[in-house]
Write a structure and sequence with these properties.
Blueprint: E1 2-7, H1 12-16, H2 29-41, E2 49-52, H3 56-66, E3 74-76, H4 93-99, H5 101-109, H6 122-139, E4 145-150, H7 152-163, E5 180-185, E6 190-197
Parallel strand pairs: 1-4, 2-3, 2-4
Antiparallel strand pairs: 1-5, 5-6
């Protein structure tokens, strides 16, 4: 079983450094270009299914890919939503640093302990993400390839799970917008085949230093 994980293209709120979580921010102009470059990179891949978060930044990224694969089943799945940032959603990165400095530090260093105010617990997003992975592996054959268009934290959890990493280390991973990460699930062990591949983006790549809010 092969899962190709793609993070959505840059959203408007990524661009301006605003926390979005489950808020439905659209793709930016750059994000639309990134999605098209990603779609062209994946145009010759063979997929058995395409799954997407219902949030439009992930859905529009998946739509761009799906145009090259019109016969492939396309499914939205709420298990692929980004973590709910609670009271942080809609705030700029500087506002979160000012108002929630201690909680933000905890989220960055010990995410498994963190509960964003009025947001989602890490244990909940961990459960729904791993449940999704188990369900997809069960429903598709061992030789299947599935495309998943989703968000930063979901991808980090799936990669950490494949590597046997402690979940408190997920924020040491950088997943760029419109990048590709590939995990293969064999009978004995999963393998991380690629991480945050972005060669297809060229000058369109979003660098880490320019993205304050996920």
């Amino acid at each position: 079983m092969r899962i190709i994980l793609v993070r959505h293209g840059e959203s408007e709120w990524n661009r301006i450094g605003r926390y979005q979580g489950q808020q439905d921010a659209p793709l930016s102009g750059l994000g639309l270009q990134q999605a098209e470059a990603l779609a062209k990179r994946l145009a010759t891949e063979k997929f058995d299914a395409i799954y997407s978060s219902p949030l439009q930044r992930a859905r529009r990224t998946a739509d761009a890919i799906a145009r090259y694969h019109p016969a492939v089943p396309f499914l939205e799945d709420r298990a692929l939503l980004e973590i709910n940032h609670g009271d942080w959603e809609g705030l700029y990165a500087g506002e979160v640093r000012e108002r929630y400095a201690e909680a933000l530090d905890e989220w960055r260093t010990f995410p498994t302990r963190c509960q964003m105010p009025n947001g989602e617990s890490f244990s909940n997003i961990l459960k729904r993400t791993l449940n999704f992975r188990e369900r997809v592996c069960r429903e598709h054959g061992a030789n299947a390839t599935v495309l998943v268009s989703t968000h930063d934290v979901v991808i980090k959890i799936l990669i950490a799970d494949a590597l046997g990493m402690h979940m408190d280390r997920i924020n040491r991973l950088w997943i760029t917008n419109a990048s590709i990460s590939v995990v293969e699930y064999a009978d004995d062990l999963p393998f991380l085949v690629s991480l945050s591949e972005a060669c297809h983006l060229g000058h369109l790549e979003t660098v880490r230093e320019k993205q304050e809010a996920i």
